[in-house]
Amino acid sequence: MRILLIGYGKMGQTIGALAVQRGHEIAGIVDLHASQSIIADFTPEAVDVAIEFTHPDSAFANVMTCLGQGIPVVCGSTGWLHHFEEARALTTELGGSLFYASNYSVGVNLFFHFNEYIAAKMAQYGGYDVAMREIHHTQKIDQPSGTALTAAEGILRHFPAKTTWRNAPAEMPAELAIISERTGDAVGTHIVTYTSDVDTLELKHEAHSREGFALGALLAAEWLPGRPGVFGMKELLDL
Ligand SMILES: NC(=O)C1=CN([C@@H]2O[C@H](COP(=O)(O)OP(=O)(O)OC[C@H]3O[C@@H](n4cnc5c(N)ncnc54)[C@H](O)[C@@H]3O)[C@@H](O)[C@H]2O)C=CC1
Ligand SMILES: O=C(O)C1=N[C@H](C(=O)O)C[C@H](O)C1
User: Fold this and answer.
1) Which residue intervals define the domain Dihydrodipicolinate reductase C-terminal in the entry (predicted)?
2) Which whole-number Å values give the CA distances from 16 to 6, 22, 200, in the listed order?
3) Which residue has the least CA distance to atom 2 on ligand 2?
4) Stretch 123-138: mean pLDDT, rounded?
């Protein structure tokens, strides 16, 4: 597969190396700090799929450009979801292909699945409060993490005592606290904690490297071309 990498930072480089190991061709690399704008240098025919990991402020424009050029796009950038419905509408209008996941790791997507199951069971049996922590490297721009937001949505859907989230200690019982920590080069840890008077139950995912994110993004890129629509890891992994 001929892959266009949009963003060649920590994730773009990890994905590029793994893509070559998996027998793919890097058709081009677009990075803000490169000397030229490379999307313009590519005809859609020269690219099978683009993989976009850049910045919260640039992801939406990059996705729209890919869709406009008929390039299927796998986007991993977080912090731009206030524009997601516009991207969905353009995908539908143009018959394009868009894949988005706040976290491409297979392990985190299992974590999302178990998170929703646990939230529903905790709501059913009662007596527990719930809170979340996410820990990332100090270069991370957005807060809370995209992964924490997806996990929070899963809790709010199944645990009616929480109706909203707050990126700080909860001030009201109905708020789900998401505590964000930034330390060193922490790759990404997410912890959901349920506490009752008598015990504590935790669901935790800790990424040891970026390889898991990169592999998931490549699995999505291998799967997406030829599938018009908007997709995520639930469709890819059949969760
Ligand atoms: N969905 C997932 O599984 C994961 C998502 N991420 C997200 O991916 C994004 C990138 O993460 P990292 O690679 O760690 O960041 P990074 O800062 O190491 O790399 C980002 C790169 O994008 C470039 N860039 C910025 N604006 C650009 C633009 N308009 N066009 C082209 N290139 C541009 C920068 O020059 C930089 O080289 C973040 O939003 C992060 O939260 C990170 C890891 C996993
Ligand atoms: O910026 C990161 O590094 C990560 N971002 C994603 C997020 O915001 O959830 C995924 C992963 O946790 C790493």
Assistant:
1) 107-237
2) 10, 10, 41
3) 140
4) 97
pLDDT tens profile 2-61: 999 999 999 999 999 999 999 999 998 889 876 545 545 667 788 999 999 999 999 999
Write down the pTM of the prediction.
0.96
- How far is Cα 74 from Cα 226, in angstroms, rounded to an integer? 13
Domains, the chain, ranges and CATH?
2-104+211-237 (3.40.50.720), 106-206 (3.30.360.10)
Work out which ligand 1 atom sits closest to the CA atom of 55: 39
* Closest residue by Cα to residue 3 from 60, 55, 72: 72
Residues with beta carbon inside 6 Å of ligand 2?
A: 78, 102-103, 136, 140, 145-147, 188
- Active site positions, annotated: 136, 140
